[in-house]
Amino acid sequence: MSTKPQSESPVDAPQQGATNGQSASDIRLSGDELLLSADSDIAPTLSVVMPTLNEEGGIAQCIEWVKAALEDLQVYGEVVVADSSTDRTPEIAEENGAIVIEPDDKGYGYAYLYAFERARGDFIAMGDADCTYDFKELPKLLDMVRAGEADMAMGSRLEGEILPGSMPPLHEHVGNPLLTKFLNVFYGAGVSDAHSGMRVFSRDAWETMDCSSSGMEFASEMIMEAGAKDLEIAEKPITYHPREGEANLESFPDGWRHVRFMLVNAPGYLFSAPGFGLSVIGVLALVLAWSGIEIGSASFGIHTGIGGGLLTLAGFQLMLFGAFSTVSSDPVRGASDPFTTWFTKRISLERGATIGSVVFLAGLAYGGVLAVTWVTSGFSALPIAVADVVATVAVVVGLQMVFGSFLLGSVENSS
């Protein structure tokens, strides 16, 4: 879904002072004139949001870059600084024309959520206030969104230029490409640099994304929501600069938060797909062991059957986890595999319990036959056959199906 092109005049900013035959389109306002204060009656076209945590070394330069972008675009805008600093960052930001707000809770994501609620522009830009992102590059991103080419435009560092000292090699060559790959596979984002912090999007797109994460995983959630809700994401190469001041990012803890958030919100990949794979391998092993088929010089006996039984049980349990997660946790992208769809959409509590009971009783009946054989043989040791393993698997799968149906029913009733 992409935004419709906005109706545009040659210059969005009202032009004043045209005299002596000078047309309004000939008048260009400066960045200082185009940057609006909180009490301005003019509605901004663009709101630039920056979360800050002790960024006194870079905030002034970032605001100057925003002014240059506004002058280039000739649109009215505002800079909203969501500040949690203990240094002079808020004072410097206000001196340079920014609107400073103080979030009432902690967290990178929460700072953005708090600021976006208070931003007034039809379009919203975001970026860090440490001089790593040159806000003079905003026009090429905003132009794509205003023209309806994208719902969200992102600056790609990995497709652009990363200046020496800007990004640790581990982040550049391992962390960011790997996290981007996860997002592209799980959520169909189709981007080259999923964790670039320079983004521009329409207000409609922001409301569609419906993000809520308060931590560093907020950056991933935006892409996940956009991909899951079929929003159009476009990219332009940008230059990534060395930061001013101390870094607030913790590589491994913050990286893990992103990965964990992506996995938890994609139960189809976390549970259902591995579960289906294990189940297929397990059932195949059981069939080979039970049928006595030989492949070349390989024969499959009781040990293959036991391994197949364990894989089948583990796989079925994982598929149940995928179904429960989809129904109970409202993930960004719920599992949509055939088993989850069948179990959650077509199987009622009664039907699921019935199917599970039949499977359970079939396995139990065979167990009863074995018990009678054992008693009549004078309690002598019985040889273990593949059929015994199959019966055991049937008993356990049947129980899982019965109680899983009841659990799913209780989850649906409480939601």
UniProtKB/TrEMBL annotation:
<feature type="transmembrane region" description="Helical">
    <location>
        <begin position="269"/>
        <end position="290"/>
    </location>
</feature>
<protein>
    <submittedName>
        <fullName>Glycosyltransferase family 2 protein</fullName>
    </submittedName>
</protein>
<dbReference type="InterPro" id="IPR058718">
    <property type="entry name" value="Agl6_TM_C"/>
</dbReference>
<dbReference type="Pfam" id="PF00535">
    <property type="entry name" value="Glycos_transf_2"/>
</dbReference>
<feature type="domain" description="Glycosyltransferase 2-like">
    <location>
        <begin position="47"/>
        <end position="206"/>
    </location>
</feature>
<keyword id="KW-1133">Transmembrane helix</keyword>
<feature type="transmembrane region" description="Helical">
    <location>
        <begin position="353"/>
        <end position="375"/>
    </location>
</feature>
<dbReference type="Pfam" id="PF26629">
    <property type="entry name" value="GT2_TM_C"/>
</dbReference>
<keyword id="KW-0472">Membrane</keyword>
<feature type="compositionally biased region" description="Polar residues">
    <location>
        <begin position="16"/>
        <end position="25"/>
    </location>
</feature>
<dbReference type="InterPro" id="IPR001173">
    <property type="entry name" value="Glyco_trans_2-like"/>
</dbReference>
<feature type="domain" description="Low-salt glycan biosynthesis hexosyltransferase Agl6 C-terminal transmembrane region">
    <location>
        <begin position="336"/>
        <end position="410"/>
    </location>
</feature>
<dbReference type="InterPro" id="IPR029044">
    <property type="entry name" value="Nucleotide-diphossugar_trans"/>
</dbReference>
<dbReference type="InterPro" id="IPR050256">
    <property type="entry name" value="Glycosyltransferase_2"/>
</dbReference>
<feature type="transmembrane region" description="Helical">
    <location>
        <begin position="302"/>
        <end position="324"/>
    </location>
</feature>
<feature type="transmembrane region" description="Helical">
    <location>
        <begin position="381"/>
        <end position="408"/>
    </location>
</feature>
<feature type="region of interest" description="Disordered">
    <location>
        <begin position="1"/>
        <end position="25"/>
    </location>
</feature>
<keyword id="KW-0812">Transmembrane</keyword>
